[in-house]
Specification:
This protein has a domain at 3-190 and 223-250 and 293-311: Rossmann fold, CATH 3.40.50.720. The protein has 350 residues and is an alpha/beta fold. The chain has helices spanning 12-24, 64-74, 88-93, 95-117, 155-174, 196-206, 225-238, 255-269, 299-305, 313-326, 328-336, 339-342, and strands spanning 3-7, 29-34, 54-58, 78-81, 125-131, 178-183, 186-187, 210-213, 219-221, 223-224, 243-247, 252-254, 281-284. Strand 5, helix 5 (155-174) and strand 6 form a beta-alpha-beta unit. The protein has a seven-stranded parallel sheet, sandwiched between helices. A two-stranded parallel ribbon has the order 7-10. Strands 8-13 form a two-stranded parallel ribbon. It has twelve helices and 13 strands. The two termini are 28 Å apart. It is globular and about 65 Å long. Nicotinamide-adenine-dinucleotide binds at residues 7-8, 10-14, 34-37, 39-40, 60-62, 82-86, 101, 105, 129-131, 160, 183, 185-186, 192. Pfam families: GDP_Man_Dehyd. It catalyses: dTDP-alpha-D-glucose = dTDP-4-dehydro-6-deoxy-alpha-D-glucose + H2O. Keywords: Lyase, NAD. It is an enzyme of class 4 (lyase).
């Protein structure tokens, strides 16, 4: 019997991780700890919200007293930490928020875990979910491995890099049972439509401009979110304390090629003439400090723990587009901001 606090479980990736653990491990108690920022949406977990092994707790990981009390009360055996400010563009306009949640929040959790586990780290686990963006940007052919030196450029990636360093410091200094994974760009259902893929799907569907930053030459390595959740499951259960794994899709796409592919998928699904949706592509001013290319070498994860992506990008993208076309209500609630009173209001006074 394990009790796991999963932070950020109402967000995009966190909701897939919570769902997977609640469904696959009925013996575990899963506590979803989330502040419900603009990115947190309990509608993402509607299908499992009444499961007997699931509980939601509204709270801010930056609030030290709250976190210490929660850990004292709940005595979790493990933490899977996904709560974060996650959007690069927002980090450019408000870096401090990223330092607070991503750095201070992470250190609060590490400290709370250390305080209750009191040096007995054998069967305990602190799993920190991070990004490949900590490694910086690549040339044309190289790839990020677990040995690549950190070289973050955006306030988002700098804050995530800092949090990774603190997690390693807690392993090196106190022996806390930490594990880190650094994953490439995710896509799939419940993705907040400020990020490229859901934003493009939504805008194409509505006949609105699809903004392409700069020349659209930047490359991202896309992974289906459910494959990421499965990788987290495998690493959580099998990795040695103190270890790090890269997770990626071996699936590099230039932004402009990806957007053109989405346009052609949506032309077919919406019964438009071929080339109709591509007319919405609009080149806009580039993002400041825009990293050119990310690509993950996930060989360590494959060789040591046997994980590989389960579906191709074409399959995953098709599923994703279908999900957004079918779940119009979710998308409308999110774009209107409605979801924040609708599903989350019952927790506003806690
Ligand atoms: P998201 O923005 O969709 O969700 C973040 C969640 O964290 C939200 O539910 C939000 O309410 C919660 N949260 C934010 N601040 C909080 C606070 N102070 N206290 C408690 N909860 C708070 O993010 P995501 O895309 O699901 O990313 C999840 C994690 O995975 C992040 O740590 C991110 O760095 C990492 N990651 C994301 C990607 C990606 O492609 N999205 C890739 C690799 C790694
Ligand atoms: P994003 O989804 O924000 O993820 P990240 O910045 O973490 O990689 O952006 C993915 C890529 O798409 C990135 O190179 C920036 C670019 N982009 C656009 O061209 N237009 C957009 O409207 C957005 C949101 C992103």
């Amino acid at each position: 019997m394990k009790k796991i606090i999963i932070t950020g479980g109402a967000g995009f990736i966190g909701s897939h991780v919570v769902r997977r653990f609640v469904k696959n491990y009925p013996d575990y108690t899963i506590i979803n700890l989330d502040k419900l920022t603009y990115a947190g949406n309990l509608a993402n977990l509607k299908d499992i919200e009444h499961s007997p092994n699931y509980r939601f707790v509204k709270g801010d990981i930056v609030d030290l007293e709250f976190i210490n009390n929660l850990f004292e009360q709940e005595q979790p055996d493990a933490v899977i930490h996904l709560a974060a400010e996650s959007h690069v563009d927002r980090s450019i306009t408000n870096p401090l928020e990223f330092v607070m949640t991503n750095v201070v929040g992470t250190v609060n959790l590490l400290n709370a875990a250390k305080n209750i586990w009191k040096g007995q780290y054998d069967k305990k686990r602190f799993y920190h979910v991070s990004t490949d963006e900590v490694y910086g940007t690549l040339g044309d052919t190289d790839m990020f491995t677990e040995q690549t030196a950190y070289d973050p450029h955006s306030p988002y990636s700098a804050s995530k890099a800092s949090s990774d360093h603190f997690v390693r410091a807690y392993y090196d200094t106190y022996g806390l049972g930490t594990v880190i994974s650094n994953c490439s760009n995710n896509y799939g259902s419940y993705h907040f439509p400020e990020k490229l893929i859901p934003l493009a799907i939504n805008n194409i569907k509505q006949g609105k401009a699809v903004p392409v930053y700069g020349k659209g030459e930047n490359v991202r390595d896309w992974l289906w979110v459910e494959d990421h959740a499965r990788a987290i499951d495998v690493i959580f259960h099998k990795a040695a304390a103190g270890s790090t794994y890269n997770i990626g899709g071996h699936n590099e796409w230039k932004n402009i090629d990806l957007i053109k592919l989405l346009c052609s998928i949506l032309d077919k699904k919406l019964g438009r003439e071929a080339g109709e949706s591509a007319k919405l592509i609009t080149y806009v001013t580039d993002r400041a400090g825009h990293d050119l290319r990310y690509a993950i070498d996930a060989a360590k994860l494959k060789n040591e723990l046997g994980w590989e992506p389960s579906i191709t990008f074409e399959e995953g993208l098709e599923k994703t587009v279908d999900w957004y076309l079918t779940n119009e209500q979710w998308l409308n609630d999110v774009t209107s901001g409605h979801y924040q009173d609708y599903y989350n209001e019952q927790y506003t006074n806690r």
